[in-house]
Amino acid sequence: MSTSTPITADDRRRLWHPRGTLCAVCRQPTRGFGWFDPHRSKRPRPSVWFCSMPCQSFWSRLARERFAMVDLTKEERAAITATMKRVALLMDEIGWATPLGDLTEAQVRALIEEAVEGFREAMSDIARAQTPEVPF
Fold first, then answer.
1. How crowded is residue 28: how many other Cβ atoms within 10 Å of its Cβ?
2. Which Pfam families does the record cross-reference, listed alphabetically (predicted)?
């Protein structure tokens, strides 16, 4: 006969939270804010996770407007434009005449990191700007 210890609230929370998942809006690590498709009754229901309430609210608004997004949204297009400016500054340092095949691994890595970080920051800023401030 084995004795088992009761499951605590921390244990349940640890099992529930999606460790290692990135925010669906800005790609930062999630912090427990989630969204489940309310129209699907069969399990598992599609779900996405977020780093903050502004990102969650932003996604929920987009989901209400049109969940089956195929094309880029106007917010994503704005984020890409903001990212292009950051990547262009880095390309100025590298040199615009440099062929892509001649870039070093460090230069390619820097370009990719600048593009990803720029897009993430722009999407986060857009979500924050479109979501009312939470009073607490």
1. 16
2. DUF6511 (PF20121)
pLDDT, one tens digit per residue, over 33-75 is 777 766 666 666 667 888 888 888 888 777 776 655 567 788 8
Cβ within 8 Å of residue 92, ≥6 positions away: none
The pLDDT score that the predictor gives to residue 31 is 77
Residue 128, amino acid: R
Q: Tell me the DSSP string of the chain.
A: ----PPPPHHHHHHHHS-TTPBPTTT-PBP-SEEEE-TT--SSSPPEEEESSHHHHHHHHHHHHH-SS--SPPHHHHHHHHHHHHHHHHHHHHH-TTS-GGG--HHHHHHHHHHHHHHHHHHHHHHHHHHSPPP--
CA distance 69 to 73: 8
CB 91 within 8 A of CB 130: no
Yes or no: say if 49 and 34 are a contact pair by the CB < 8 Å rule.
yes
